[in-house]
Amino acid sequence: MVAGAIYTAVGFLQRSETLITERCTAVGAGGEDLATDQAANAALISAIAVRRGLPARAASIALATSMQESKLRNIGHGDQAGPDSRGLFQQRPSQGWGTEAQVMDPYHATNAFYDALEKVPGYQVIPITEAAQRVQRSAYPGAYAQHEPMARAFASALTGQTAQGVDCSLRKPEAAGDAGQVRQRLAAAFGALPATAAGRTVTVQAQDTRAWAVAQWAVANAKALSITEVRVDGQHWSRLSHDGWQATDVPAGQVSITVADTPAP
């Protein structure tokens, strides 16, 4: 009977895993969730804004633009209006955004977008759709507005302005994580960070909004990087609990990111 009960419980848990729809949410996003790959791209776009010292407003404009242009995916094709358009922002090499390889590089594409945005007078205060249009010169300038609630919510959380703002519902990791890779990806997104990798944990020394930007970047990248736990500023996110952010004891001034061990056979 005990063996039968254990078998039933294991089977139930396995079925429960398959019922989980993997997605990421943000407080105030108006019900527009992101798939895990979209959330990872949103985290990169927001991290580069933090790295450049730009306001969260810049990230909001960039996220609304990328969602409209490519659904926040690094796509390698254009459309009838822009047959040579590529990447997160559907930038056209023929219009001076860089080579095809460059616009397909999310880091180059995002920095190129911000370079252009910073030249728009008053982009911090004009409507998001107007700022996006000044950069993109789209045939459908009003289309960016539909993504404003999502863009504002994710940008606020991923730049660290809103603590506990991003949560991702994920299944168990399918592979072991690599703390060294997490550290490298963090540095590529945010620039040089005082971070150490030991065993399965990366520890980043960071305060206030930067700490939350790093922590929520980790949550948004948890699927791809097999991250299981994030701890910051008295809060703990666990991939396996599905309970969102919960209070815990965490030393002030640091973010702790733990990756998965090798899954049991």
Strand order of the largest sheet: 3-4-8-5-6-7
Order of helices and strands: HEHHHHHHEHEEHHEEEE
Proportion in helices: 40-55%
Q: State the end-to-end distance.
A: 25 Å
Total number of helical segments? 10
Mean pLDDT across every amino acid position: 91
User: Structurally, how many domains make up the residues?
Assistant: 2
Largest β-sheet summary: 6 strands, antiparallel
Q: Total number of β-strand segments? A: 8
Roughly how many Å is the radius of gyration?
19 Å
Low-confidence stretches: 7-15
Shape: globular
Question: Strand-residue fraction?
Answer: 5-15%
Structural class: alpha+beta
3D structure, described in words:
The chain is an alpha+beta fold. The protein has two domains: 26-158; 173-259, no CATH class. 43% of the residues lie in helices and 14% in strands. Strands 3-4-8-5-6-7 form a six-stranded antiparallel beta sheet. The chain has a two-stranded antiparallel sheet with strand order 1-2. Strand 3 (195-198) and strand 4 form a beta hairpin. The longest helix is centred in the N-terminal third of the chain and has 18 residues, at 2-19. The chain is globular.
Descriptive keywords:
265 residues; alpha+beta; 2 domains; 6-stranded antiparallel sheet; two-stranded antiparallel sheet; 43% helix
Give me a quick take on this structure:
43% of the residues lie in helices and 14% in strands. Helix 2 packs antiparallel against helix 3.
Describe the secondary-structure layout.
Layout: H1 2-19, E1 23-26, H2 36-52, H3 56-70, H4 100-103, H5 106-117, H6 128-136, H7 148-158, E2 166-169, H8 179-190, E3 195-198, E4 201-205, H9 208-220, H10 222-225, E5 227-232, E6 235-238, E7 245-247, E8 254-259
Helix pairs in contact: 2-3, 2-5, 2-9, 3-6, 3-7
